[in-house]
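Q: Predict the bound structure with magnesium ion.
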Amino acid sequence: MTYVRPKFRHPELPKNKLGYTLSYYEGALSTLCAGCGHDSISAAIVQSCYEMDIEPHKVAKLSGIGCSSKTPAYFLSNSHGFNSVHGRMPSVATGAYMANRDLIYFGVSGDGDTASIGMGQFVHAVRRNLKMVYVVMNNGCYGLTKGQDSATADLGSKSKAGSVNPFEGIDLCGLALELGANFVAQSFSGDKHQLTPLIKAAINHNGFALINVISPCVTFNNNPGSTKSYDYVRQHIQTTGMADFVPIAETIEANYNEGTHKKIQMHDGSFLTLNKLAQDWDPTDRMSAVNALHASRAKHEVLTGLIYLNAQGKDLHNVLNSAATPLNTLKEDVLCPGNDALKGINEEMR
Amino acid sequence: MSGTGSKINDFVVRLANVNGTGSASANFLFAKSIFRSGVFMTPKNIFPSNIQGLPTWYEIRVSEKGYLGRREGIDMMVAMNPQSMMQDVMSVRPGGYFFYDSTKPLHPQFKRSDIHYIGVPLMQMCNDNYTDARQRQLFKNIIYVGAFSALLNIDLQIMIDLLAEQFKGKEKLIEPNVKALNMGVDYIKANYKYPLEFHVEKRDLTKDKIVIEGNNACGLGAVYGGATVLSWYPITPSTSVAEAFADWCHQFRVDKDGKNNFAIVQAEDELAAIGMVIGANWNGARAFTSTSGPGVSLMNEFLGLAYYAEVPAVLIDVQRTGPSTGMPTRTQQSDVMEAAYAGHGDTKHILLFPSTPKECFEMTAESFDLAEEFQTPIILMTDLDLGMNDHVSDPLVWDDKRKYKRGKVLTAEQLEKMERFGRYYDVDGDGIPYRTIPGTHPTKGSYFTRGSSRDEYAVYTEDSAAYKRNVDRLAKKFETAKSKVPAPHIYNAKNTSKNAMLFFGTSTYSSEEACDLMKEEGIALDMIRLRSFPFSKEVHDFINSHDKVFVIEQNRDAQMRSCLMIELGIHPDKLISILNYDGMPITADFIQRSVKKVLAPGKVVAAN
Ligand SMILES: Cc1ncc(C[n+]2csc(CCOP(=O)(O)OP(=O)(O)O)c2C)c(N)n1
Ligand code: SF4
Ligand SMILES: [Mg+2]
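A: Predicted complex:
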């Protein structure tokens, strides 16, 4: 079975600066269950790329294995995609980024893909700070293998079959903060207004940007007693505030109120402004972010929004001191030292 | 036995040292001085999986005839390690020499009546001349090397020149080292008859040669082959490939602004290492990793993905003694089957088998061409013996006119002219499809790379017919590779015998030598050296045209023989295994004995 979206579109649809309509950013028709949170996240990715006037072919989208990891087929059909092996998208993305620093890298993963089989690779991608957006579509279960608990399932969360998860859940945002991630955000698939500006800011971030999105699995983990169901998340959601991403070209028009708003300048001069709701929390202070996460956990709340941002970090290519020209474009003249150099080497080996 | 003939330029010296005492550079100085005397020599490091304290040996075979394999039988033992003294005494051939530190008298238990003893009070001399403990240790090594200069008739000036090269930029160190060398020379001259009957006579045989480790040559080959991305995880004996690549890159690949035209990441494990290699190759850079058996095991899933999704990748497998951790610092050729069929489902990979450092250099560079031409992993099958030991080799050459073969990669202009791009469409009938690099064209050429089944247009499908078309095309691609991979080396244009030897990699030197030795005894054998997998028609024809083929390899389970049976359908009776798998490099004596057991049972001489 293959699903190709019908091509007809209304001619009057609005276009972005590149002259593309929103539909240009879509992918193949989704084969996920109707109502699956993952599809809403794909839609937010489409919206963000459209709004940011991104050339889709300058995006590489990579994933592991799982329902969530299938989604790159459902957005940006003009981007190259790589559906790799379970849990190992971070290494493939790292290699791709090493080869070409000029593309935008979208990594999509699930909670099983990231927090279990891929935990090792996730952790190292964070600490290497490669410039990529890393989206976890977190449903607290293994969707594709039919609903087993994942490592992000909360202690005490009830499965569809009625069993209660006896293990502590892994908090991916807390972990990323601990590992030194410079962009950490959490969101909910049901809140596109919050998610879209976060994705836009993440694309613009000069380093590893984690967005952990609670994304209910309607088929296996949307039952009463589950802490990753639509109902539960809606009842327990708390937000750090609304983020608004302002690209460098635009001037900020709204007058933000000092104290309740925070304006963070990103590495290229663009701004992320936050309508800050949480009182004693500073998104540019790692300790404060960790505290905010812990406090909300203690209250069984799901804290969403931007949690931490440090725009000054050094990304992997800066650390490696790589040339500005992407390595994949270099040719023999630069790469091969030639036979004269070899003669000198032979001489030294005699 | 070769030791019973001429003793000039034909002997084996073994040095017993303690790991971590700085003996390596002194021993190399000794070996290199023989090479500079114009005579062939083959050094072998025999070392433990340990950083400091356990015994290590350095064995040098000197051979006027240019035999570069290991030889059995030790003519001179240099016993610098009290811990292995008993074993060391016992391993000397009757009539051989035992060199020891005579500061304290040798315990009677180490006395044999059938060997000669040469004592030099090394510790005493060091204590008298140096105050610093580390200096005493280091100069002790230089003193014994000096003693060999006299005992083995090696021109002292050659050693002095080598020291001067070694300490270029640190000239202050030359003089004390020369002084130590002379202390050794003087002691021998004052106390012993010299040179020994085993000794070196200057020749002009090695003038055009170089001395290099296989791993170093691989690292350099990767630079010449255009690799820009390396991801690796440390494991003996492959680590020095990555280190060499890094060193050569710092020499040749830093641009005028001080920026690197390469990227190296030490991965968190081998899974990530090969994952990065696949990601980078997918994105159009030439990328590689190096590892050993345990790493290849971990890479299996990813290798299967790269095979099926048709992503180029280069993997250098420096084999060691398995299974599991086995003997991590000893050699074997025991990953043949694991590499040939790495991955689940129906997978097969192209393997290359270098047997000299020159081939390490050339085949590493060629791997990148083959990986891109065939859009599949290429595994270079070297081993600890080739990789971590110095070898006398022909010099390295590069054709400056050579262009990298990037394979079937479509440009934006080519895409522009196309109706529809089919990533997995067999346009040319050779099983090799066209690929695109991400970012090439705004609307044409993007596709979804995946390990799940797809049709010719890279669209996901579970249609059985489409699946089968795809895996059949992959098989056809493998068939195409047979005539494009390095051809086997067949030694005689016409057969000279009903019987033959087949070998590959580091079994080569000793096999060639064994063939020479047996020829002297009237046993003729043809020879073929495999250089790659899959096997070409020449391999098949060669085997078919002989009655018996001795398959010489360094593993227990006759892995190459199995591959020959599986791939070529050869009858098992025809392929007679000669298997060396004790972790030590294979010797000509061993091969000779094993062949003779079958062909001339009366002529077998017992091992000494
Ligand atoms: C090595 C390996 N082990 C197991 C699987 C089977 N498998 C496929 S998807 C999956 C879990 C996916 O869970 P998650 O990442 O949370 O994605 P979701 O389907 O929930 O979106 C598993 C275990 C596999 N594909 N590969
Ligand atoms: S099984 Fe769950 S995660 Fe998978 S598509 Fe259906 S709803 Fe989504
Ligand atoms: Mg999941």
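A: The mean pLDDT of chain A is 92.
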